[in-house]
Amino acid sequence: MTVAISLVDAMRAIAELRAEVAALRKELAELRPKPLPGLARVVAAEHAVLARIGTEVAEAHGLTLEHLRGASRHHHIAQARQEAFARCLEAGRSSTQIGRYFGGRDHSTVLHGARAHRARIEGVQ
């Protein structure tokens, strides 16, 4: 008889634990941050600026935006990408935003590329 009572007690304890887990999940869901109103529009606008600059630079070099956002390290693609970095920085975008947009690159890569582009321009003039 003690086995049956222990089994009933165990089943009751499991039911209580399940109810507690469900309540904690509900509480956790309420704590999750809610999306900020209009944030999607702001992010889309930021991407539009980066895409416009990237497309302009790519076309000027006979490339596509996908080339600039890709992983290629070919000299002519890398130089065009560095020009895009510099122009995006001049447009007021952060190096982190630019790096994320152009293939997930680190912000320091963006800063180095923009400096390299400026050095090439100053060396030509």
CATH class of the largest domain: Mainly Alpha
State the secondary-structure class: mainly alpha
Share of residues in helices: over 70%
CATH names the topology of the largest domain as Chromosomal Replication Initiator Protein Dnaa, Chain: A
Number of strands: 0
Specify the biggest β-sheet.
none
List the helices and strands and how they pair.
Layout: H1 2-31, H2 39-60, H3 65-69, H4 75-90, H5 95-101, H6 107-124
Give a verbal description of the structure.
The N and C termini lie far apart (97 Å). The chain folds into 2 domains: 1-32; 39-124, DnaA protein, C-terminal DNA-binding domain (Chromosomal Replication Initiator Protein Dnaa, Chain: A, Orthogonal Bundle). The chain contains 6 helices and no strands. Helices cover 78% and strands 0% of the residues. With 125 residues, it is mostly helical.
Features:
125 residues, 6 helices, mainly alpha, 2 domains
